[in-house]
Amino acid sequence: MWAKSSLNVTVHLDFQPTEGASMASTADVPLPPGVPTLLRTFSDNDTLGVWVLVIVEESNVPPVNFELSPRGTGGSLLTGTYTVAGTILAQNFVVPGGLDFYDGQACLLGGGASPTPTVQVPPGAGGGEVQMQRYGGDLVASGLGLGNQTFAYWVEMYYSYSFLAANSSGTLVSRDAVSTSTGLGELSRTEPSSTVPLQDEGTQRPGVYTMEAFFMGSAGTVGESQAQVLVQGDGTWISLAGCAQTQVQQDGFVLTSLLGSDPTAWPTYAYFTYRSQGVEGYLSAPLRLNLSSLTFVGEPWGSPLGGYSISTDVSGGKNVTSAGGGTVFADVGGGASVAYSVSLGGKEYYSGILSSVSPGSSITVRLNVSRALVDYFVGGSPFPGGNVTVLQGGEALVHGTTDAAGQAVFLLPPGTYQVQASGGNSSASASMTLSIGQSQEVQLGAEGGGEGGGGLTVYLLAVGLAALGLNLVVYVRGRLRRARVRRLQGGPGLKPSHQ
Q1: What is the pLDDT of residues 235-268, one digit of tens each?
Q2: pTM here?
Q3: Which residues make Cβ contacts (< 8 Å) with residue 195, sequence separation at least 6?
């Protein structure tokens, strides 16, 4: 407990037992004017019940009563089970039993560099933004994208506190108090960084604070900007701007996060803030993820195998299935072997076993595939947004959409396929045969005429033998709605590629 008075007074704390007439008192503590002073650090050994703050030799000032009650937190936030669906991590948390709280908020943090608290510079001070971080007893401000004028700034950090209103029946009143502030600093485009000393009004306890930054531009007008900041136990400031907070119920809560293929960017811990009898509490817990990132790419192009269904069977862990994106997250416990199966259109094309996969690892599985580039033209021009389907034996394997250049790219196992494209009131189709490492391009085009007219012209472009560095082009023109790619024959000194 800290206290600050505008007067030069002396105070002490009395303990009023629930039964009995005597009180137990602490030593007198002088309060110099305007100086935050530590009165007592309460511990689990302190007696629970009603305490009284008494101002010595000031009989006309009534004492202040407060109640020291059990936290019932058990010391930490408890992590439960987690699940992964596609790229979404869902982590369950359990609130310690016996904790009576309200206004519970929680968020996942960590992964890479901790986000630095950032405030926006008002237009009157030139615009841009300033990152604020505490280093010991100093505040270091770093400007980004600042305007052309020099401006002054100062910062205040607020936390909330609560008390029972005098002469009320349990009415809880909440107020904001300044915990830390700075003097004036100065920033500009040519001098975008500055350091100013911090003035702590007592000790910053872990929890959520409001950072309020004030800016004064060359015209003398003052603007302000705010940011929510989490102060950790080691005093580090972390921005909560990108944290999607979750309302917490009494029994527990679930937090979700989007996982990427880089484990160092995964969240590492969760924080939980709450209020109990007007006092803000703070708990945190590390995330113990036993996940490994497995990314399947098609060689020789090094592109993820999007559209494939990837299944894993983990020894001592959990099975994971992913459809699309080329990345799966396998729960490998403390380490395990992982058997995988890669399918397209319900048919397995690749399988294998990865041995000794450890949690937190990122593994790339490289599979030899072929590449099909489909160009779709309508009226002689590339058609964006066209629907393209690749079939085998009449069964659809994968679908795609042409990009702004009218092209769709597919990574496919070796084999013979049918390609269908539609859009712009036209359609066309063709067949192609692919071998390992081969890149083949098919141009399907319609010159007006619509779906059933006689103006349909099909272009077929085969680009093969990529491994030999050859770039052979064959055009077939005709008034057909269906055609086949002519196979390229090797001439003198030319052999087909079997890569």
Answers
A1: 888 888 877 778 787 778 899 998 988 999 899 8
A2: 0.69
A3: 138, 139, 140, 141, 185
